[in-house]
Specification:
Elements (H helix, E strand, L loop, with lengths): L6 H6 L3 H28 L19 H6 L18 H23 L1
Helix pairs in contact: 2-4
Length: 110
Amino acid sequence: MGFPWYHVHTFVFNDLCRLLSIHIMHTTLVASWSGSMALYKLAFFDLFDLFLDPIWRQGMFVIPFMTHLGITNSWGGWNLWNSFISLRGSLLWFWCISGNRLVWSWNMGV
């Protein structure tokens, strides 16, 4: 029989150090997964035929969410280049941010 989702919190609710360490480990796992998956998808991303083979048809699901978070163009209208977004420049920023997530997740896990 399975336990309900909140069953883990009942074990660690009164132990603050264990609760904090579990949440830090979860953050580490999520950051490392998103960083490694973004690097993997960037390695196979074909940007030369975006009309017939758009980003959603290539199986990209991490990179569009990274653009919604304001990495290349935010909701407020600012961007990293102040004039327009070049696709090759934004790919460089995706590589940097994905690598940054991996490095920080390794630092959190140690």
